Amino acid sequence: MEVLDALAKARLLPLLTVRGGEDLRALAQVLREEGVGLLEITLRTPQGLEALRVLGDSGLLLGAGTVRSLEEAKAAMAAGARFLVSPGLKEAVACLAQEEGVPYFPGVLTPTEVERALELGLSVLKFFPAEPFQGAQVLRAYAEVFPEVRFLPTGGIKEEQLPLYAPLPNLLAVGGSWLLAGDAASIRGRIRRAKALLRLPAQG
């Protein structure tokens, strides 16, 4: 699957909440040049859907984050979202995504939530919020009991925590907004450092 392959290659999922004033095309260019082919745009602000439309021809695989209702999921897909991410598991969104063939990554935290996601046919899950709940330690334990699940830990993760996540066998990619703070040069440097910490070669 294209989205999963891109996540496995990048091992990073940058998360953007659009508040106005961002140079979206410049950001997309930096991500492409640094070998990060995906961007999660949250629906926390009204500008999120418009950003999905604006970047539709950017060459990035765009996802919608903070999808909390069926209506938001439909609007996001209509705006060009190629994958959907929720802070928690929304069964109606899971059903719609499966019908449309769109990857859906719901947020989970507890073993019960992981089991419910598996019952719905979902085996790639967002682990959220990661750092407040010692994400690396929990995911290491989950690798033993849920070997079929791969995780996208998100929430409070910063550069200094990446070495804790890098060796996890069930890690697909690390998500976060910290990657996109600052100007283009700052973002570029942060991506390169993150890739090094996750033991990936830099581009170029």
From TrEMBL:
Pathway assigned in UniProt: Carbohydrate acid metabolism; 2-dehydro-3-deoxy-D-gluconate degradation; D-glyceraldehyde 3-phosphate and pyruvate from 2-dehydro-3-deoxy-D-gluconate: step 2/2
InterPro entries for the chain: Aldlse_KDPG_KHG, Aldolase_TIM, KDPG/KHG_AS_1
Enzymatic reactions: 2-dehydro-3-deoxy-6-phospho-D-gluconate = D-glyceraldehyde 3-phosphate + pyruvate
EC number: 4.1.2.14
Coiled-coil positions: none
Superkingdom classification of source: Bacteria
Family: Belongs to the KHG/KDPG aldolase family.
Name of the protein in its database record: 2-dehydro-3-deoxy-phosphogluconate aldolase
Organism (species): Thermus brockianus
